[in-house]
Amino acid sequence: MAVDLSALAFAIVDIVGVIGILVWHVQGKDRPTARLIVQILFFAAMTATFLSQGIVPFRVTTGELEGLTAYLGKSARVLWWVHLAWATIGFVRLYIALDRRPQEARLIQDLIVAGVYLGGALSIIGFVFGAPIGTLVATSGVVAIILGLALQNTLGDLFSGVALTLGRPFTIGDWIQLGDGTEGRVIQNNWRSTQILTPAHNVVVLPNSALAKLSLTNLTRPDESHLVVLAIRIATDRQPSAIEAILVSALEDCRFIVQEPKPVVAFKGIDAIAIDVELLFRVTSPANRVPARNEIIDVVSQQCATQGLGFAMPAQAYLVVPSLGDKMEKSGSVGGLPCAL
């Protein structure tokens, strides 16, 4: 008679467990609190059913090892462990959070969830099916070594993803520049890879292990404004102060650059032919560098033409001939004058 009552209790637990799984899926992920409450209620009902018949959920007794009772008992205990794991995971997802650090909180949650699933699987194998857990763990260690060697690159990407998550060198939406020249906005980041949208509107997928080895410049921090340097050469037919005033006036007329802090005209050098000038200005975003540079070149060209300033050729385009008698194969100039090659 006791066996029949046990079989009835196991059948009730099986029915309650299956209904709990269906309700758990119907609740959806957008209602975590209600989902956790329902999960706890179903788990409590299953536990109460076990205890009402004096059955220990995590221990198999001798009387359950034969016939239908054995199958019902195993399935009931498997469902009990599954609901326990899901209730624990629901609690972890809902209450383990770090203020202003969502990535770290997500990482901690995922690690705990993985531990819960692993513990639940070992508990089912050991307490429900009676397998020797010690031997299983020892065997799984050898299997883990084999899998680690076979999945070396994948595991490298995984641990590099963990390091990037903890270090937080960038977040989704940041504009970054890598040491290999890759540049763009981060659109997705997971444990396996990082996706970057380049200015050419292509998506570059970088394994985290490769990304962790590259030097990285975050152009979004502390803000997204970006410094641009444009080098020009002005002929030395005006005083440097007059040239500076003309170029500053041209920069103030540009719409694509940031006027605070103000753009700067920096003299880098001077020779008998030209003055080397660098125009330093900021743009609101790295994506605005091309239109800002185009506008600067157009405005400066117009302003120089209006004010009578001439552009000089690059220094590498001139050759000084030391004497009149030398043979000149690449130049037609004479007597130490600069000649364009």
UniProtKB/TrEMBL annotation:
Give the record's membrane topology: Multi-pass membrane protein
**Any transmembrane segments, and where?**
6-24, 36-58, 78-96, 108-127, 133-151
Chain ranges of the Mechanosensitive ion channel MscS domain: 153-221
- Please classify the protein's predominant subcellular localization into one broad category: membrane
Compartments in which it is found:
Cell inner membrane; Cell membrane
Which InterPro entries does UniProt cross-reference here?
cNMP-bd_ion_channel (IPR016846), LSM_dom_sf (IPR010920), MscS_archaea/bacteria_type (IPR045275), MscS_beta-dom_sf (IPR023408), MscS_channel_2nd (IPR006685), MscS_channel_C_sf (IPR011066)
| GO CC term (a single one) | plasma membrane
Q: Which Gene3D superfamilies does the UniProt entry name for this protein?
A: 1.10.287.1260, 2.30.30.60, 3.30.70.100
GO MF annotation terms: mechanosensitive monoatomic ion channel activity
UniProt keyword annotations, A-Z? Cell inner membrane, Cell membrane, Ion channel, Ion transport, Membrane, Transmembrane, Transmembrane helix, Transport
Q: How does it assemble?
A: Homoheptamer.
Please describe what this protein does: Mechanosensitive channel that participates in the regulation of osmotic pressure changes within the cell, opening in response to stretch forces in the membrane lipid bilayer, without the need for other proteins. Contributes to normal resistance to hypoosmotic shock. Forms an ion channel of 1.0 nanosiemens conductance with a slight preference for anions.
Family membership noted in the UniProt record: Belongs to the MscS (TC 1.A.23) family.
Q: What is this protein called in UniProt? A: Small-conductance mechanosensitive channel
- The record lists the organism as Agrobacterium bohemicum
What high-level taxonomic lineage is stated for the organism? Bacteria, Pseudomonadati, Pseudomonadota, Alphaproteobacteria, Hyphomicrobiales
